[in-house]
UniProtKB/TrEMBL annotation:
<dbReference type="GO" id="GO:1902600">
    <property type="term" value="P:proton transmembrane transport"/>
</dbReference>
<dbReference type="GO" id="GO:0005886">
    <property type="term" value="C:plasma membrane"/>
</dbReference>
<dbReference type="InterPro" id="IPR059000">
    <property type="entry name" value="ATPase_P-type_domA"/>
</dbReference>
<feature type="transmembrane region" description="Helical">
    <location>
        <begin position="53"/>
        <end position="80"/>
    </location>
</feature>
<dbReference type="GO" id="GO:1990573">
    <property type="term" value="P:potassium ion import across plasma membrane"/>
</dbReference>
<keyword id="KW-1003">Cell membrane</keyword>
<dbReference type="Pfam" id="PF00122">
    <property type="entry name" value="E1-E2_ATPase"/>
</dbReference>
<dbReference type="InterPro" id="IPR023298">
    <property type="entry name" value="ATPase_P-typ_TM_dom_sf"/>
</dbReference>
<keyword id="KW-1133">Transmembrane helix</keyword>
<dbReference type="InterPro" id="IPR050510">
    <property type="entry name" value="Cation_transp_ATPase_P-type"/>
</dbReference>
<dbReference type="GO" id="GO:0036376">
    <property type="term" value="P:sodium ion export across plasma membrane"/>
</dbReference>
<keyword id="KW-0812">Transmembrane</keyword>
<keyword id="KW-0472">Membrane</keyword>
<dbReference type="GO" id="GO:0030007">
    <property type="term" value="P:intracellular potassium ion homeostasis"/>
</dbReference>
<feature type="transmembrane region" description="Helical">
    <location>
        <begin position="92"/>
        <end position="112"/>
    </location>
</feature>
<dbReference type="GO" id="GO:0005391">
    <property type="term" value="F:P-type sodium:potassium-exchanging transporter activity"/>
</dbReference>
<feature type="domain" description="Cation-transporting P-type ATPase N-terminal">
    <location>
        <begin position="7"/>
        <end position="81"/>
    </location>
</feature>
């Protein structure tokens, strides 16, 4: 869904029909569907790419902020030996070890989180329905879900899985469960009116892979395939690590790592100053 489409839950229904060249009574025309399929593509989420685990491990261990931590750890070990002399400070050794442990733990946590996210996204494809009931040219018919396009009028009943992101047109006791996508464990009672300015919070919008627990109704498809909310989440999850957004977990870990690194650098500077002072006092001609 493009930035322009973020108002699709707010605008009047007539504007939605005009935007997608559709209407509730007849749905899309067969002639328009062909052009729409060329424009929007198939209603399929691009599957996650197979991961090169060695490259993923290398990225997490040596790229980004971890490269600085490796440098700090190596400097701490150098400060312990050989710069530590005959009586090296155990603090430098401890800081070096802590930095290396932080790198390994941080990388392991990131790899686990990334692989788990990819596995969850991939599992959604198994929940996708193979067919959907639509109204085209005024006729109700069943079609493969990968042929759906924005503007299609879909008919929904209890037990269905929503085949695309949609805005509800009618609802008769309709309740959907989007727990896998939103984390909300209780089913949501569907309405045909906007209930929130934020798209994800409005109950007149249904999301791809949501399960219909009760009731029946009709909806107009507003996004398909990679343009759905789930499709965008999948794209964010599977793209290169260099483009990942910083999560709260990453932010907290980086703060801790930065604290350790700063403490390490300050310790090394103090050690050097102390060593230079001792050298100047004991060997003034050196």
């Amino acid at each position: 869904m493009s930035r322009l489409d973020q108002d699709v839950h707010v605008i009047p229904m007539e504007s939605v029909f005009r935007r997608f060249h559709s209407n509730q009574r007849f749905g899309l025309s067969t002639a328009f569907v062909h052009d729409a399929q060329l424009h929007y593509g198939t209603n399929q989420i691009t599957p996650p790419r197979s991961q090169n685990y060695f490259w993923l491990l290398f990225q997490q261990l040596f790229m980004g902020f971890n490269s600085i931590l490796w440098l700090g750890g190596i400097l701490a070990l150098i400060a312990y030996q050989p710069l530590g002399g005959s009586n090296p400070s155990i603090t430098n050794l401890g800081l070096g070890i802590v930095l290396f442990l932080v790198i390994i733990c941080n990388a392991s946590l990131n790899i686990y989180q990334k692989l788990k996210s990819i596995k969850i996204i991939a599992s959604f494809s198994k929940l996708s329905p193979t067919t959907a009931t639509v109204r085209r040219d005024g006729v109700e018919q069943q079609i493969p879900t990968n042929e759906l396009v924005p503007g299609d009028i879909i008919l929904i009943q209890m037990g269905d899985v929503l085949p695309a992101d949609c805005r509800f047109l009618t609802c008769e006791g309709l309740k959907v469960n989007s727990a896998e996508l939103t984390g909300e464990t209780k089913p949501i009672t569907v309405t045909v009116h906007c209930t929130g300015q934020i798209l994800m919070e409005s109950t007149n919008i249904g999301f791809y892979s949501s399960f219909v627990e009760q009731g029946m109704g009709e909806a107009i498809v507003i996004a398909t395939g990679d343009n759905t909310i789930l499709g965008k989440m999948s794209g964010t999850t599977t793209k290169d690590s260099s483009g990942d957004e910083i999560t709260n977990l990453h932010r907290e870990v980086n703060r801790f790592v930065l604290f350790v690194l700063v403490a390490d650098i300050i310790s090394i500077i103090i050690l050097w100053i102390t060593w230079l002072g001792w050298l100047n006092h004991s060997h003034p001609t050196f």
